[in-house]
Hints:
By secondary structure, the chain is an alpha+beta fold. It is 40% helix and 17% strand. The chain folds into two domains: 52 residues, no CATH class; 38 residues, no CATH class. It contains four helices and two strands, in the order H-H-H-E-E-H. Strand 1 and strand 2 form a beta hairpin.
Amino acid sequence: WVKDPVNARKFYTALQGLSLGRHLIFVGEQETGKSTMATALAKLLSGPQVEQKQIEYTTSTQDVTFSPHLGEEGKAFQSGFKANCVPRAMDTKG
């Protein structure tokens, strides 16, 4: 995929943006390489353990932030919030 000159240029531009502390949003028609680009960047920067979350019009805020749940680690009557993909990605404790 990245051997194509057009894709290589987009990949390089995305890396430049990330190195400047910018956030990336990929917008475009289906099957144009948005997910491929995001996965390639994530693997390059994070290693093989990459978590992806497809965001669609039906995706709720709770799907990506915190969702309430009952029972924690198999213990009854303990409620709390489960961290979803965004808070887990922001966790600096490892």
